[in-house]
Amino acid sequence: MPELPEVETVRRGLQPAMEGASFSRVEQRRADLRFPFPERFVERLTGRTVVALTRRAKYLVAELDDGAALIMHLGMSGRFIVLDGKGGSSEPGGFYYEDGRDTTHDHVVFHLSNGATVIYNDTRRFGLMDLASRDSLAVSKHFKGMGIEPLGNEFDGEAVARLFAGKKAPLKAALLDQRLIAGLGNIYVCEALFRAGLSPKKRAGIVADAKGKAKPIAHELAAIIRDVLGEAIEAGGSTLRDYAQTDGSLGYFQHRFRVYDREGEACLKPGCKGAVKRLVQSGRSTFYCGVCQK
Fold it and tell me: Which label site among 45, 104, 129, 137 has the fewest CB atoms less than 10 Å from its CB?
């Protein structure tokens, strides 16, 4: 499943085509994706203008001029293709696991007033599209109970300590708990814990003292998480293929992976003679160095 940096990369790639444009025509080519489309989906979108294209965790949110919001999630294999109306095309975002595009799975087509066309393709159909009121997004079924944004102003060492204080769950599991921090995924949690020198098996509560105050490691971990996500976004996501971004640059964050998917390989931390190990936590693969991650 695409992680937060990939979704943010997609948002940035779609923004020039969608923001400020109206839906001239909408093609809905099937009744459902992971869930059925909302009633009158095409009718409710046609003629509406996208006033802003934002992101919440791993969701894209197109804020519309009538007070509604189009909520989109890529699921396992969803992707957008942008046709600029002048013969050019781009596919914003690149993912670590690529399936290749089959046009028979182009399920939704947005024809925009600026001449651009945005196609949603989803082979496995685990993505979703929904409509909700912008004013009630925070309490909608998609976002209710969702944690803080790791790239938001609220996220810092104090927040990490407050969220994790007293928790006996493993640090890896706590970081992946969307009720605490929204949008963190397996790849970047593994990378952040490696850079912080923290074992994924340690109790989450170690980041706070007995009074719940942030220890230095809480501040360090928060900063590292921000850095890892920021680097991935600037690199254009974790694509494995020769994929050109909308500005022509290549996204190759996976070439910077220091621990993820490197089981059995030598640890890249200078001076460490350990090797990358793999274990399964809550059904997810965790990659870490058993020597330098304490």
Answer: 104
